[in-house]
Amino acid sequence: MKHTPTISAEFEDYLKQNDMTLSQFAEYSGVHQRTLSNWITQHRPVSVQQLDRITVAMDLPEGYFYDLYIENYIIDLSPNFRRIEPLLYRCAELDKLDAIRRMVGHIMDNPLYASRLFDVAEALFEQGRHAAALPLYENVAEVEKYQHSERLAICQYRIFSIQVGDDQSRNLKAATLFEPFVERLDEIDQLDALKDLANVFRSLRLWDRLDVTARKMRVRAEIQYTLEHQQKKRKPAELEKRLSRPLFVYITYSDLLCASVYEAKGDYEQALEYTYAYANLDWVKETDEDTLHWIKQFQDWALCNTYVNKLLFGDISVLSDYVEYIAASKADKEMVTKLLNVMFAANRYQLNVNHVLERFETLIDFFVKQGQSSSDMYTKQVIPEQFARLGYELAYYYLYQGKYNDGFKYLMYAMLRSHIINNETYFINCMGLFLHFREYAITETKAGFLNLIEKVWLENVEKNGTADHRG
Question: How many CB atoms lie within 10 A of CB 458?
Protein backbone atom coordinates (compact mmCIF):
# COMPACT_ATOMS: atom_id res chain seq x y z
CA MET A 1 0.00 0.00 0.00
CA LYS A 2 1.38 3.37 -1.01
CA HIS A 3 2.09 5.69 1.91
CA THR A 4 0.94 9.26 1.35
CA PRO A 5 3.19 11.82 3.06
CA THR A 6 1.53 14.48 5.16
CA ILE A 7 2.17 18.20 5.39
CA SER A 8 2.23 18.01 9.18
CA ALA A 9 5.00 15.39 9.06
CA GLU A 10 7.11 17.62 6.80
CA PHE A 11 6.41 20.50 9.19
CA GLU A 12 7.61 18.49 12.19
CA ASP A 13 10.79 17.56 10.30
CA TYR A 14 11.34 21.25 9.60
CA LEU A 15 11.07 22.12 13.29
CA LYS A 16 13.59 19.43 14.22
CA GLN A 17 16.07 20.38 11.50
CA ASN A 18 15.91 24.03 12.51
CA ASP A 19 15.84 23.34 16.28
CA MET A 20 12.69 25.43 16.59
CA THR A 21 9.85 25.13 19.09
CA LEU A 22 6.18 25.31 18.19
CA SER A 23 5.93 28.55 20.15
CA GLN A 24 8.80 30.12 18.23
CA PHE A 25 7.32 29.11 14.88
CA ALA A 26 3.88 30.42 15.90
CA GLU A 27 5.34 33.81 16.73
CA TYR A 28 7.36 33.88 13.50
CA SER A 29 4.54 32.72 11.19
CA GLY A 30 1.55 34.47 12.80
CA VAL A 31 -0.34 31.17 13.13
CA HIS A 32 -1.61 30.49 16.66
CA GLN A 33 0.32 27.88 18.60
CA ARG A 34 -2.89 26.05 19.53
CA THR A 35 -3.81 25.79 15.85
CA LEU A 36 -0.40 24.31 15.05
CA SER A 37 -0.64 21.90 18.00
CA ASN A 38 -4.11 20.69 17.03
CA TRP A 39 -2.89 20.25 13.48
CA ILE A 40 -0.01 18.00 14.55
CA THR A 41 -1.53 16.08 17.43
CA GLN A 42 -5.21 15.87 16.48
CA HIS A 43 -4.78 16.07 12.69
CA ARG A 44 -7.21 18.97 12.39
CA PRO A 45 -6.82 20.60 8.96
CA VAL A 46 -5.40 24.11 8.83
CA SER A 47 -7.09 26.65 6.59
CA VAL A 48 -5.58 27.63 3.23
CA GLN A 49 -4.72 31.06 4.63
CA GLN A 50 -2.90 29.46 7.58
CA LEU A 51 -1.14 27.04 5.22
CA ASP A 52 0.09 30.00 3.17
CA ARG A 53 1.56 31.61 6.30
CA ILE A 54 3.24 28.34 7.28
CA THR A 55 4.68 27.98 3.79
CA VAL A 56 6.13 31.51 3.83
CA ALA A 57 7.59 30.97 7.29
CA MET A 58 9.29 27.78 6.06
CA ASP A 59 10.78 29.82 3.21
CA LEU A 60 9.09 27.70 0.56
CA PRO A 61 7.49 28.83 -2.75
CA GLU A 62 3.83 29.91 -2.78
CA GLY A 63 1.51 26.94 -3.11
CA TYR A 64 4.28 24.47 -2.33
CA PHE A 65 2.00 22.27 -0.21
CA TYR A 66 -1.20 22.55 -2.26
CA ASP A 67 -0.93 19.14 -3.90
CA LEU A 68 -0.39 17.49 -0.53
CA TYR A 69 -3.19 19.57 0.99
CA ILE A 70 -5.56 18.24 -1.67
CA GLU A 71 -4.38 14.71 -0.96
CA ASN A 72 -4.50 14.99 2.85
CA TYR A 73 -7.60 17.09 3.44
CA ILE A 74 -9.80 16.89 0.35
CA ILE A 75 -9.30 13.43 -1.15
CA ASP A 76 -8.55 11.52 2.08
CA LEU A 77 -11.33 13.30 4.04
CA SER A 78 -14.95 14.07 3.27
CA PRO A 79 -15.02 17.07 0.89
CA ASN A 80 -15.60 20.35 2.71
CA PHE A 81 -16.36 23.33 0.49
CA ARG A 82 -15.15 25.75 3.15
CA ARG A 83 -11.66 24.37 2.52
CA ILE A 84 -12.12 23.80 -1.21
CA GLU A 85 -13.39 27.25 -2.22
CA PRO A 86 -10.44 29.35 -0.95
CA LEU A 87 -8.02 26.79 -2.37
CA LEU A 88 -9.68 27.07 -5.79
CA TYR A 89 -9.16 30.83 -5.76
CA ARG A 90 -5.52 30.52 -4.64
CA CYS A 91 -4.77 27.87 -7.26
CA ALA A 92 -6.30 30.17 -9.87
CA GLU A 93 -4.05 33.03 -8.73
CA LEU A 94 -0.99 30.79 -9.01
CA ASP A 95 -2.10 29.11 -12.30
CA LYS A 96 -2.11 25.67 -10.67
CA LEU A 97 -4.62 24.30 -13.15
CA ASP A 98 -3.83 20.62 -12.53
CA ALA A 99 -4.61 21.12 -8.84
CA ILE A 100 -7.95 22.70 -9.76
CA ARG A 101 -8.81 19.75 -12.01
CA ARG A 102 -7.95 17.26 -9.25
CA MET A 103 -10.20 18.99 -6.73
CA VAL A 104 -13.09 19.45 -9.11
CA GLY A 105 -12.87 15.91 -10.43
CA HIS A 106 -12.95 14.56 -6.89
CA ILE A 107 -15.98 16.46 -5.61
CA MET A 108 -18.20 16.33 -8.69
CA ASP A 109 -19.69 13.02 -7.61
CA ASN A 110 -21.81 15.20 -5.35
CA PRO A 111 -24.22 17.21 -7.57
CA LEU A 112 -24.95 19.54 -4.63
CA TYR A 113 -21.58 21.20 -5.25
CA ALA A 114 -22.47 22.17 -8.84
CA SER A 115 -24.16 25.41 -7.82
CA ARG A 116 -21.27 26.56 -5.64
CA LEU A 117 -18.67 25.60 -8.24
CA PHE A 118 -20.62 27.56 -10.83
CA ASP A 119 -20.49 30.65 -8.60
CA VAL A 120 -16.72 30.28 -8.21
CA ALA A 121 -16.34 29.82 -11.97
CA GLU A 122 -18.35 33.00 -12.62
CA ALA A 123 -16.18 34.94 -10.18
CA LEU A 124 -12.98 33.67 -11.83
CA PHE A 125 -14.37 34.47 -15.28
CA GLU A 126 -15.16 38.01 -14.15
CA GLN A 127 -11.57 38.35 -12.88
CA GLY A 128 -10.24 37.29 -16.28
CA ARG A 129 -8.90 33.96 -14.97
CA HIS A 130 -10.47 32.04 -17.82
CA ALA A 131 -8.12 29.06 -17.88
CA ALA A 132 -8.87 28.40 -14.21
CA ALA A 133 -12.62 28.82 -14.71
CA LEU A 134 -12.77 26.43 -17.67
CA PRO A 135 -12.53 23.07 -15.79
CA LEU A 136 -15.17 24.29 -13.34
CA TYR A 137 -17.60 25.15 -16.14
CA GLU A 138 -16.86 21.84 -17.88
CA ASN A 139 -17.59 19.81 -14.76
CA VAL A 140 -20.77 21.71 -13.92
CA ALA A 141 -21.94 21.22 -17.51
CA GLU A 142 -21.20 17.51 -17.28
CA VAL A 143 -23.21 17.16 -14.05
CA GLU A 144 -26.16 19.10 -15.44
CA LYS A 145 -26.11 17.85 -19.04
CA TYR A 146 -29.52 16.20 -18.76
CA GLN A 147 -31.24 19.01 -16.88
CA HIS A 148 -31.63 21.54 -19.75
CA SER A 149 -31.12 24.39 -17.28
CA GLU A 150 -30.19 27.98 -18.00
CA ARG A 151 -27.08 27.42 -15.86
CA LEU A 152 -26.03 24.65 -18.25
CA ALA A 153 -26.47 27.06 -21.17
CA ILE A 154 -24.38 29.71 -19.43
CA CYS A 155 -21.65 27.13 -18.79
CA GLN A 156 -21.63 26.19 -22.47
CA TYR A 157 -21.47 29.88 -23.45
CA ARG A 158 -18.51 30.47 -21.15
CA ILE A 159 -16.73 27.34 -22.43
CA PHE A 160 -17.26 28.56 -26.00
CA SER A 161 -15.97 32.05 -25.17
CA ILE A 162 -12.86 30.67 -23.44
CA GLN A 163 -11.99 28.11 -26.12
CA VAL A 164 -12.28 30.39 -29.13
CA GLY A 165 -8.79 31.47 -30.20
CA ASP A 166 -6.34 31.32 -33.10
CA ASP A 167 -7.14 27.77 -34.21
CA GLN A 168 -10.03 27.96 -36.69
CA SER A 169 -10.56 24.20 -36.64
CA ARG A 170 -11.00 24.30 -32.88
CA ASN A 171 -13.23 27.36 -33.18
CA LEU A 172 -15.58 25.55 -35.53
CA LYS A 173 -15.88 22.68 -33.06
CA ALA A 174 -16.51 25.08 -30.16
CA ALA A 175 -19.18 26.99 -32.10
CA THR A 176 -20.91 23.80 -33.23
CA LEU A 177 -21.05 22.45 -29.67
CA PHE A 178 -22.38 25.71 -28.26
CA GLU A 179 -24.93 26.60 -30.95
CA PRO A 180 -27.75 24.30 -29.65
CA PHE A 181 -27.60 25.96 -26.23
CA VAL A 182 -28.14 29.56 -27.35
CA GLU A 183 -31.92 29.47 -27.09
CA ARG A 184 -31.73 28.18 -23.51
CA LEU A 185 -30.07 31.41 -22.43
CA ASP A 186 -32.04 34.36 -21.12
CA GLU A 187 -33.48 36.49 -23.96
CA ILE A 188 -31.02 39.29 -23.23
CA ASP A 189 -27.96 37.05 -22.94
CA GLN A 190 -28.85 35.48 -26.29
CA LEU A 191 -27.96 38.70 -28.09
CA ASP A 192 -24.27 38.67 -27.18
CA ALA A 193 -24.13 34.91 -27.66
CA LEU A 194 -25.50 35.24 -31.20
CA LYS A 195 -23.14 38.12 -31.91
CA ASP A 196 -20.14 36.06 -30.81
CA LEU A 197 -21.29 33.02 -32.79
CA ALA A 198 -21.80 35.21 -35.84
CA ASN A 199 -18.25 36.55 -35.63
CA VAL A 200 -16.86 33.01 -35.52
CA PHE A 201 -18.94 31.95 -38.53
CA ARG A 202 -17.86 35.10 -40.36
CA SER A 203 -14.18 34.36 -39.74
CA LEU A 204 -14.73 30.78 -40.97
CA ARG A 205 -16.58 32.10 -44.06
CA LEU A 206 -19.56 29.88 -43.27
CA TRP A 207 -21.97 32.22 -44.97
CA ASP A 208 -25.18 30.21 -44.64
CA ARG A 209 -24.69 29.71 -40.91
CA LEU A 210 -23.76 33.36 -40.53
CA ASP A 211 -26.92 34.41 -42.36
CA VAL A 212 -29.16 32.30 -40.10
CA THR A 213 -27.41 33.51 -36.93
CA ALA A 214 -27.54 37.18 -37.94
CA ARG A 215 -31.25 37.01 -38.73
CA LYS A 216 -32.00 35.33 -35.40
CA MET A 217 -30.10 38.09 -33.64
CA ARG A 218 -32.09 40.75 -35.46
CA VAL A 219 -35.47 39.22 -34.58
CA ARG A 220 -34.58 38.91 -30.89
CA ALA A 221 -33.06 42.38 -30.72
CA GLU A 222 -36.11 43.97 -32.36
CA ILE A 223 -38.39 42.28 -29.81
CA GLN A 224 -36.30 43.57 -26.91
CA TYR A 225 -36.09 47.06 -28.41
CA THR A 226 -39.89 47.18 -28.76
CA LEU A 227 -40.36 46.01 -25.17
CA GLU A 228 -37.88 48.59 -23.99
CA HIS A 229 -39.58 51.55 -25.62
CA GLN A 230 -43.24 50.62 -25.75
CA GLN A 231 -43.96 48.58 -22.65
CA LYS A 232 -41.24 49.92 -20.36
CA LYS A 233 -40.99 46.56 -18.60
CA ARG A 234 -37.35 47.07 -17.69
CA LYS A 235 -35.24 49.95 -16.66
CA PRO A 236 -32.62 50.87 -19.31
CA ALA A 237 -29.85 50.44 -16.73
CA GLU A 238 -30.75 46.76 -16.41
CA LEU A 239 -30.06 46.16 -20.09
CA GLU A 240 -26.94 48.31 -20.16
CA LYS A 241 -25.44 46.24 -17.35
CA ARG A 242 -26.01 42.93 -19.12
CA LEU A 243 -25.28 43.80 -22.75
CA SER A 244 -21.86 44.58 -24.18
CA ARG A 245 -23.41 47.04 -26.68
CA PRO A 246 -26.41 49.38 -26.78
CA LEU A 247 -29.52 47.39 -27.72
CA PHE A 248 -30.02 48.94 -31.16
CA VAL A 249 -26.50 47.82 -32.19
CA TYR A 250 -27.60 44.17 -32.38
CA ILE A 251 -30.24 45.15 -34.97
CA THR A 252 -27.88 47.18 -37.12
CA TYR A 253 -25.00 44.72 -36.76
CA SER A 254 -27.31 42.04 -38.11
CA ASP A 255 -27.82 44.14 -41.25
CA LEU A 256 -24.05 44.57 -41.56
CA LEU A 257 -23.51 40.82 -41.28
CA CYS A 258 -26.21 40.09 -43.87
CA ALA A 259 -24.52 42.59 -46.18
CA SER A 260 -21.24 40.72 -45.76
CA VAL A 261 -22.99 37.44 -46.67
CA TYR A 262 -24.29 38.87 -49.94
CA GLU A 263 -20.96 40.53 -50.66
CA ALA A 264 -19.17 37.18 -50.24
CA LYS A 265 -21.67 35.53 -52.59
CA GLY A 266 -21.13 38.23 -55.21
CA ASP A 267 -24.60 39.79 -54.91
CA TYR A 268 -23.38 43.36 -54.52
CA GLU A 269 -26.76 44.97 -55.19
CA GLN A 270 -28.36 43.12 -52.28
CA ALA A 271 -25.29 43.85 -50.16
CA LEU A 272 -25.77 47.56 -50.86
CA GLU A 273 -29.44 47.35 -49.81
CA TYR A 274 -28.42 46.05 -46.39
CA THR A 275 -25.63 48.62 -46.22
CA TYR A 276 -28.07 51.45 -46.81
CA ALA A 277 -30.29 49.96 -44.08
CA TYR A 278 -27.67 50.26 -41.36
CA ALA A 279 -26.59 53.66 -42.65
CA ASN A 280 -30.05 55.08 -41.91
CA LEU A 281 -30.45 55.09 -38.13
CA ASP A 282 -33.08 57.81 -37.75
CA TRP A 283 -35.29 55.29 -35.92
CA VAL A 284 -32.89 55.02 -32.96
CA LYS A 285 -34.52 56.78 -29.99
CA GLU A 286 -31.57 57.07 -27.60
CA THR A 287 -29.35 60.15 -27.67
CA ASP A 288 -26.71 59.34 -25.05
CA GLU A 289 -22.99 59.54 -25.80
CA ASP A 290 -22.50 55.79 -26.28
CA THR A 291 -25.40 55.62 -28.74
CA LEU A 292 -24.05 58.56 -30.75
CA HIS A 293 -20.65 56.85 -30.87
CA TRP A 294 -22.17 53.68 -32.34
CA ILE A 295 -24.33 55.59 -34.81
CA LYS A 296 -21.23 57.35 -36.11
CA GLN A 297 -19.42 54.01 -36.27
CA PHE A 298 -22.14 52.37 -38.36
CA GLN A 299 -22.37 55.35 -40.68
CA ASP A 300 -18.61 55.16 -41.21
CA TRP A 301 -18.83 51.42 -41.93
CA ALA A 302 -21.69 52.10 -44.34
CA LEU A 303 -19.67 54.69 -46.25
CA CYS A 304 -16.72 52.30 -46.43
CA ASN A 305 -18.80 49.33 -47.54
CA THR A 306 -20.67 51.38 -50.13
CA TYR A 307 -17.32 52.09 -51.77
CA VAL A 308 -16.32 48.43 -51.41
CA ASN A 309 -19.45 46.95 -52.96
CA LYS A 310 -19.35 49.35 -55.89
CA LEU A 311 -15.64 48.65 -56.37
CA LEU A 312 -16.04 44.87 -56.26
CA PHE A 313 -19.01 45.13 -58.60
CA GLY A 314 -16.64 46.66 -61.14
CA ASP A 315 -17.17 50.40 -60.66
CA ILE A 316 -13.48 51.29 -60.76
CA SER A 317 -14.28 55.01 -60.70
CA VAL A 318 -14.73 54.87 -56.90
CA LEU A 319 -11.21 53.56 -56.25
CA SER A 320 -9.59 56.98 -55.83
CA ASP A 321 -12.34 58.15 -53.47
CA TYR A 322 -12.03 54.91 -51.49
CA VAL A 323 -8.26 55.36 -51.19
CA GLU A 324 -8.73 58.91 -49.89
CA TYR A 325 -11.29 57.60 -47.44
CA ILE A 326 -8.74 55.03 -46.17
CA ALA A 327 -6.07 57.71 -45.86
CA ALA A 328 -8.41 59.87 -43.77
CA SER A 329 -9.31 56.97 -41.49
CA LYS A 330 -7.54 56.31 -38.23
CA ALA A 331 -5.24 53.30 -38.17
CA ASP A 332 -7.48 50.93 -36.23
CA LYS A 333 -8.42 47.25 -36.42
CA GLU A 334 -10.54 47.91 -39.53
CA MET A 335 -7.58 49.17 -41.57
CA VAL A 336 -6.53 45.67 -42.62
CA THR A 337 -10.05 45.09 -43.99
CA LYS A 338 -9.96 48.31 -45.99
CA LEU A 339 -6.62 47.48 -47.58
CA LEU A 340 -7.75 43.92 -48.24
CA ASN A 341 -10.69 45.25 -50.29
CA VAL A 342 -8.30 47.24 -52.47
CA MET A 343 -6.31 44.09 -53.17
CA PHE A 344 -9.45 42.07 -53.96
CA ALA A 345 -10.42 44.60 -56.59
CA ALA A 346 -6.85 44.89 -57.95
CA ASN A 347 -6.49 41.14 -58.44
CA ARG A 348 -10.04 40.66 -59.76
CA TYR A 349 -9.86 43.43 -62.37
CA GLN A 350 -6.07 43.46 -62.98
CA LEU A 351 -5.70 46.99 -61.64
CA ASN A 352 -2.37 48.67 -61.04
CA VAL A 353 -2.43 49.82 -57.41
CA ASN A 354 1.30 50.34 -56.89
CA HIS A 355 0.66 53.96 -55.92
CA VAL A 356 -1.77 52.80 -53.24
CA LEU A 357 0.65 50.24 -51.82
CA GLU A 358 3.45 52.80 -51.75
CA ARG A 359 1.18 55.22 -49.90
CA PHE A 360 0.38 52.66 -47.20
CA GLU A 361 3.71 50.82 -47.23
CA THR A 362 4.58 51.67 -43.62
CA LEU A 363 1.21 50.52 -42.35
CA ILE A 364 1.33 47.26 -44.30
CA ASP A 365 4.82 46.50 -43.02
CA PHE A 366 3.61 47.16 -39.48
CA PHE A 367 0.81 44.62 -39.97
CA VAL A 368 3.27 42.03 -41.23
CA LYS A 369 5.72 42.53 -38.37
CA GLN A 370 3.35 43.13 -35.47
CA GLY A 371 -0.04 41.69 -36.36
CA GLN A 372 -2.87 42.94 -34.16
CA SER A 373 -3.75 42.14 -30.59
CA SER A 374 -7.04 40.42 -29.86
CA SER A 375 -9.57 41.59 -27.31
CA ASP A 376 -13.22 41.01 -28.21
CA MET A 377 -14.62 38.12 -30.24
CA TYR A 378 -14.46 40.18 -33.45
CA THR A 379 -10.76 40.97 -33.24
CA LYS A 380 -10.05 37.42 -32.08
CA GLN A 381 -11.76 35.94 -35.11
CA VAL A 382 -12.35 38.17 -38.11
CA ILE A 383 -9.18 40.25 -38.04
CA PRO A 384 -6.61 37.37 -37.85
CA GLU A 385 -8.36 35.67 -40.77
CA GLN A 386 -8.15 38.90 -42.78
CA PHE A 387 -4.44 39.28 -42.03
CA ALA A 388 -3.87 35.90 -43.67
CA ARG A 389 -5.99 36.84 -46.69
CA LEU A 390 -4.28 40.22 -47.08
CA GLY A 391 -0.90 38.49 -47.19
CA TYR A 392 -2.13 36.11 -49.88
CA GLU A 393 -3.68 38.87 -52.01
CA LEU A 394 -0.50 40.98 -51.78
CA ALA A 395 1.60 37.96 -52.74
CA TYR A 396 -0.69 37.20 -55.69
CA TYR A 397 -0.53 40.81 -56.88
CA TYR A 398 3.26 41.16 -56.69
CA LEU A 399 4.05 37.74 -58.15
CA TYR A 400 1.87 38.34 -61.20
CA GLN A 401 3.54 41.72 -61.60
CA GLY A 402 6.94 40.02 -61.62
CA LYS A 403 8.01 41.60 -58.32
CA TYR A 404 9.17 38.30 -56.91
CA ASN A 405 11.00 39.48 -53.78
CA ASP A 406 7.91 41.27 -52.49
CA GLY A 407 5.62 38.51 -53.69
CA PHE A 408 7.44 35.71 -51.90
CA LYS A 409 7.83 37.84 -48.76
CA TYR A 410 4.07 38.28 -48.43
CA LEU A 411 3.41 34.69 -49.47
CA MET A 412 5.56 33.36 -46.64
CA TYR A 413 3.75 35.71 -44.26
CA ALA A 414 0.38 34.47 -45.51
CA MET A 415 1.43 30.84 -45.09
CA LEU A 416 2.59 31.48 -41.54
CA ARG A 417 -0.61 33.32 -40.60
CA SER A 418 -2.73 30.59 -42.20
CA HIS A 419 -0.87 27.99 -40.18
CA ILE A 420 -1.33 29.97 -36.95
CA ILE A 421 -5.11 30.11 -37.41
CA ASN A 422 -5.10 26.49 -38.67
CA ASN A 423 -6.84 27.34 -41.95
CA GLU A 424 -5.94 24.49 -44.27
CA THR A 425 -7.64 26.05 -47.31
CA TYR A 426 -5.57 29.22 -47.15
CA PHE A 427 -2.40 27.24 -46.46
CA ILE A 428 -2.98 25.02 -49.50
CA ASN A 429 -3.74 28.06 -51.68
CA CYS A 430 -0.44 29.58 -50.60
CA MET A 431 1.40 26.35 -51.43
CA GLY A 432 -0.22 26.29 -54.88
CA LEU A 433 0.78 29.89 -55.56
CA PHE A 434 4.35 29.18 -54.46
CA LEU A 435 4.62 26.13 -56.70
CA HIS A 436 3.22 28.11 -59.63
CA PHE A 437 6.07 30.65 -59.28
CA ARG A 438 8.75 28.38 -57.78
CA GLU A 439 11.17 28.86 -60.67
CA TYR A 440 11.48 32.52 -59.70
CA ALA A 441 12.28 31.85 -56.05
CA ILE A 442 15.87 32.27 -54.91
CA THR A 443 17.60 29.50 -52.94
CA GLU A 444 16.97 31.12 -49.55
CA THR A 445 13.25 31.51 -50.31
CA LYS A 446 12.93 27.86 -51.36
CA ALA A 447 14.73 26.78 -48.19
CA GLY A 448 12.40 28.92 -46.05
CA PHE A 449 9.37 27.44 -47.82
CA LEU A 450 10.55 23.86 -47.26
CA ASN A 451 11.44 24.56 -43.61
CA LEU A 452 7.95 25.92 -42.98
CA ILE A 453 6.35 22.88 -44.63
CA GLU A 454 8.47 20.56 -42.47
CA LYS A 455 7.63 22.57 -39.33
CA VAL A 456 3.90 22.26 -40.06
CA TRP A 457 4.29 18.56 -40.77
CA LEU A 458 6.12 17.88 -37.50
CA GLU A 459 3.57 19.86 -35.50
CA ASN A 460 0.77 17.86 -37.09
CA VAL A 461 2.62 14.63 -36.31
CA GLU A 462 2.84 15.64 -32.66
CA LYS A 463 -0.75 16.89 -32.49
CA ASN A 464 -2.31 13.87 -34.17
CA GLY A 465 -0.06 11.20 -32.70
CA THR A 466 1.11 10.10 -36.14
CA ALA A 467 4.10 7.75 -36.17
CA ASP A 468 7.45 9.45 -36.78
CA HIS A 469 10.25 6.95 -37.48
CA ARG A 470 13.00 9.39 -38.30
CA GLY A 471 16.42 8.48 -36.94
Answer: 13
